[in-house]
Specification:
Helix content is 32%, strand content 22%. It is α+β, with helices and mostly antiparallel strands and 306 residues long.
Length: 306
């Protein structure tokens, strides 16, 4: 996992440095749109409706349209003037019983890792939350948006769950539920009996996404069969030799050619000989001279006798 944000939890006068990681991931198989006729990839561009030209992201501002159709264009400078929580601080507002938070308010979950060489304050906060059986309501800024969050403990690790603001939850009223007769006592008893027969402890490992499994199986079989629906990926080209390496090899080759045929057959002589090498060479040169003198001596004596 890679950290997406760094900050610190302000727990009274205690400061807890943390790194933030996304706690969940999407395993859905991703598809992209293609032209049904030739399989060409469909791409989208940001195009201005006034001049019809593509627009770079850096040239885009944000606009608001009121219900009456009035438009207000804001720049990054305008957003910078707005009040926001400290960008790298997560202040604890209060501690509340977990059952008082409606699950409909929960949005995304993040793991918090201690970002300190001595994570004693991190462990203290986690143990305290476990002992009091409460969650900490916090306030922080993530990705340029001020958020409300619930801080709790999961397997000894602090988990930050972003909460929707109360006005982000729609109110609902269905007319069909008005004036409906209350269930009879016998109906309630039978329903409760059915609930008892299906009751057990929650084990998430018992449940799997059958749709994704079958979809993956379908794709694997199509690739293995090589059907007309499959377009094979082009083979990767052999890696080209680096230009600098090519120049170096060429320079070495030219150097060998310039040095003549001896460079290819005879090894180069050492630059300097050691003292031991010189002495050995001198001794080897003197020994043949003595043998030659010994052979000539008898010839001189023969001439005298004549």
């Amino acid at each position: 996992m890679r950290s997406i944000w760094k900050g610190s939890i302000a727990f009274g006068l205690v400061n807890v440095p943390v790194k933030v990681y996304t706690a969940t991931e999407d395993h859905d198989i991703k598809f992209h749109q293609v032209h049904a006729v030739d399989g060409g990839r469909i791409r989208y561009e940001r195009v201005c409706t006034v001049d019809g030209q593509p627009v770079q992201y850096s040239d885009i501002d944000r606009a608001y349209e009121s219900p009456d159709g009035d438009r207000v264009i804001l720049t990054d400078e305008d957003f910078a003037k707005l009040p926001a929580a400290e960008k790298h601080e997560i202040p604890v507002l209060q501690f509340v019983p977990s059952e008082q938070i409606d699950p409909i308010l929960f949005d995304k979950s993040y793991y918090l890792e201690p970002d300190s060489t001595t994570p004693k304050a991190y462990v203290l906060l986690a143990k305290t939350l476990e002992r009091v059986d409460r969650v900490a309501l916090v306030h922080f800024t993530l990705r340029q948006k001020t958020r409300l969050g619930a801080l709790r403990v999961r397997d000894g690790v602090l988990v930050l769950q972003t909460l929707l603001w109360p006005d982000e939850v729609r109110s609902v009223a269905f007319d069909k539920l008005d004036d409906v007769a209350e269930p009879k006592k016998q109906e309630l008893q039978m329903a409760e009996t059915l609930v008892d027969t299906l009751s057990d402890d929650f084990d998430p490992s018992l449940y799997v996404d059958e749709y994704q499994i079958e979809l993956k199986k379908l794709l694997d079989e199509a690739i293995a069969s090589g059907s007309s629906k499959v377009t094979r990926a082009p083979e990767a080209a052999a890696p080209e030799m680096d230009a600098e390496v090519v120049d170096l090899v060429a320079a070495l080759q030219r150097s060998l050619e310039a040095s003549g045929p001896k460079a290819n057959s005879a090894p180069a002589a050492p630059a300097k000989a050691t003292k031991a090498t010189k002495a050995t060479k001198a001794t080897a040169e003197k020994k043949p001279a003595k043998k030659a003198a010994a052979k000539k001596a008898p010839a001189r004596q023969t001439r005298k006798g004549a």
